[in-house]
């Protein structure tokens, strides 16, 4: 059943990409995969499975040509979840033959980095982009990337709650969140 939902999601995303290609192609935002409790480093076994199996399966079908993630700030105080965000993105980047571009976090970083790099790529390409970010810093990412709710139903998941769900994919077109869905990873994600 989960693979049926994943196939449906991919179909909808590909259709949105085809429709949006005449204007602006979509980009996608996800958080790092599951991590251990008590701020222990790395990914859990479920997080590793999501990063190594599910994310490449889902996103390799979405014409991704650019992957962006975060780096720890110069003081080592902010963006502590960035190494696991990069670890989450690495299997997909390797499968697609892409490098992972980084933007800093914290007060010393360029607040426009994510917005500028994603939009520069989208403007120069007909492919989509994927942002894989530290789940504990999603509020800053969404603010700095200028992502708005685009008038989605107020009962739908708010942007502030994105960090709570490792399986959530936000779809953004022209700075507006136009959709959200589960990755529907077989054996990892329960019914929505």
| Strand fraction | 15-25%
What is the name of the CATH topology?
Rossmann fold
What is the CATH architecture descriptor?
Answer: 3-Layer(aba) Sandwich
Low-confidence runs (pLDDT<50, min 5 residues)? 14-23, 153-157
How many domains comprise the coordinates? 1
Strand order of the largest sheet: 3-2-4-1-5-6
What kind of sheet is the major sheet?
Answer: 6 strands, mixed
Tell me the helix content.
25-40%
Number of strands: 6
Order of helices and strands: HEHEHEHEHEE
Give the averaged pLDDT, no decimals. 80
**Shape assignment:** globular
The whole-angstrom Rg is 15 Å
Give the CA-CA distance, first to last residue.
12 Å
Instruction: Give the CATH H-level superfamily.
Output: Phosphoglycerate mutase-like
The helix count comes to 5
CATH level 1 class label: Alpha Beta
Structural class: alpha/beta
Description:
This protein has 192 residues and is of the alpha/beta class. It has helices at residues 2-20, 45-59, 82-96, 113-124, 138-144, and strands at 27-31, 64-71, 100-104, 128-133, 168-173, 176-182. It has one domain (2-182): 3-Layer(aba) Sandwich (Rossmann fold), CATH 3.40.50.1240. It has a 6-stranded mixed sheet with strand order 3-2-4-1-5-6, with helices on both faces. Residues 14-23 and 153-157 have low confidence and may be disordered.
